[in-house]
Amino acid sequence: MSSQEISKESLPSEQDTAHGTAVAENPFADPGLPPHRPRIQDIDERAAKRSERTVALLFTLSMLATIGFIASFVIFPVDKIVYVWPLGHVSATNLSLGLTLGLALFCIGAGAVHWARTLMSDEEVADDRHAIEATPDVKAKVMADFADGARESAIGRRPLIRNTMFGALAMVPLSGVVLLRELGPLPEKKLFHTGWAKGKQLINMNTNEPLRPEDVAVGSLTFAKPQGLEEDDHDFSNKIAKDALMIVRIQPEDIKDKRELEWSHEGIVAFSKICTHVGCPISLYEQQTHHVLCPCHQSTFDLSDGARVIFGPAGHPLPQLRIGVNDKGFLEALGDFDEPVGPAFWERG
C-alpha cells in the first residue's frame, strides 16, 4: 500500500502530534526523590541506643581480635601443626593469625555499616553538578556539608561509638607492625648449633641402630643422625638439614691433619654431610684418594686433610664432629660441630 492510499482516519490528529512532540522534548523527566520514611531509630531513642551498643560491641570485638592476633604471633611457634576439622592438619600460626586479623577487619566494617544504616542520617539530597574548579563558594559549601555530615552522623552525641571506633582503628595497624618481625631472623645462635651434643650416639641412617667402631670398615662411607631424631618428627627435614653426618674410616697414618686425627676414633672421622657451597647432600666418596664429591657443582673435599676444599666453588671446609666411644661400646659425639654447618653462613651472618 502506498502512502497515497492511507486514509485520513489512520493519520495522527494535530492533538496527538502536539502531545507526542511534548513527550519527545523531555523523554527523561526527573521523577524526583521518593518520600523519606523514618527508621525506628529515628523515632525511638531506645532503639537508637541498642544500635549504638551494637556498633560499640563490634568495634570492641575488633580490638580484642587485634590483641588476639598479637598474642597468637607470640604464643604459637612457626612450626606448630594442629588438627582442625574439617581442614585437617594446618599451621597453628597461619590459622590463628588469619582468623584474628579477619575478625578484626570484619568487625570494623560491620560496625561502620550498621552505624551508617541505623544511626547516620539517611535522607537523600539532590545536588546539581558544578564546575570542577574549587571556588571560594564551593569550598565554603564543602566545609558546611562536612559539618552537616559530622552533625548528622551523631559522632558528637554518641561518645561510646566514637571512642570504640577510634580504639579499633588505632589498634588494627598494630597487626602490620607485628608482621615486621618476619622481615628477617632475630640475631640468635640458631645457625651456630645443631642437634649434636656431648653423649649423643651416632645412629645409622639405614638401619636406625647405634653404630659401633667395628660397623665402620676402612674405605666405607656411612651416614648417621643424632640419637633421638626420628623421621616421624614433624620438623625432621629442618633438623636433618643441619644434623646429617658423614662417617668414613681412614688408616690413622693416612690422616694428614693433626686436629682431625685427635677428633677421630681409631681412624673413624665424622664430617657434616652438607656441602658448604649451596647445601647439597654429599654422597660420592673415592676411597683411594679419600675425596668426597658434591654432585651438584662438583665441590671436592679431602677427608684426610681436614675436609679442605681442593676443587669447586665451596668456600670453606666441611665442619668436623668430634667423636668417641661410650661405656657400651657405641660411637658418640663429644660435642657439637666446631663451626656452623651449611652454605653461605658467613655471608648471612
UniProtKB/TrEMBL annotation:
Here the segments flagged for biased composition (Polar residues) are: 1-15
Q: Which PANTHER family match?
A: CYTOCHROME B-C1 COMPLEX SUBUNIT RIESKE, MITOCHONDRIAL
Q: How does it sit in the membrane?
A: Multi-pass membrane protein
Q: Which residue spans traverse the membrane?
A: 55-76, 96-116, 160-180
The UniProt record lists the keyword Metal-binding: yes
Protein's recorded name: Cytochrome bc1 complex Rieske iron-sulfur subunit
Primary site of residence: membrane
**Pfam families, per the entry:** QcrA_N (PF19297), Rieske (PF00355)
Species annotation: Streptomyces lavendofoliae
Give positions of region: Disordered: 1-39
The answer on whether this UniProt entry bears the keyword Metal-binding reads yes
Cofactor(s) annotated in UniProt: [2Fe-2S] cluster
Ranges for the Rieske domain? 237-332
Keywords of this entry: 2Fe-2S, Cell membrane, Disulfide bond, Electron transport, Iron, Iron-sulfur, Membrane, Metal-binding, Oxidoreductase, Respiratory chain, Transmembrane, Transmembrane helix, Transport
Q: Which PROSITE patterns does this UniProt record tie to the protein?
A: RIESKE (PS51296)
Q: Where is the signal peptide?
A: none
Q: Which Gene3D superfamilies does this UniProt record tie to the protein?
A: Rieske [2Fe-2S] iron-sulphur domain
List locations, semicolon-separated. Answer: Cell membrane
One example of the protein's molecular function in GO is: metal ion binding
Q: Name one GO cellular component term.
A: plasma membrane
Give the family this protein belongs to, as stated in its UniProt record: Belongs to the Rieske iron-sulfur protein family.
Complex and partners: The cytochrome bc1 complex is composed of a cytochrome b (QcrB), the Rieske iron-sulfur protein (QcrA) and a diheme cytochrome c (QcrC) subunit.
In this entry, which stretches build a coiled coil? none
Q: What does this protein do?
A: Iron-sulfur subunit of the cytochrome bc1 complex, an essential component of the respiratory electron transport chain required for ATP synthesis. The bc1 complex catalyzes the oxidation of menaquinol and the reduction of cytochrome c in the respiratory chain. The bc1 complex operates through a Q-cycle mechanism that couples electron transfer to generation of the proton gradient that drives ATP synthesis.
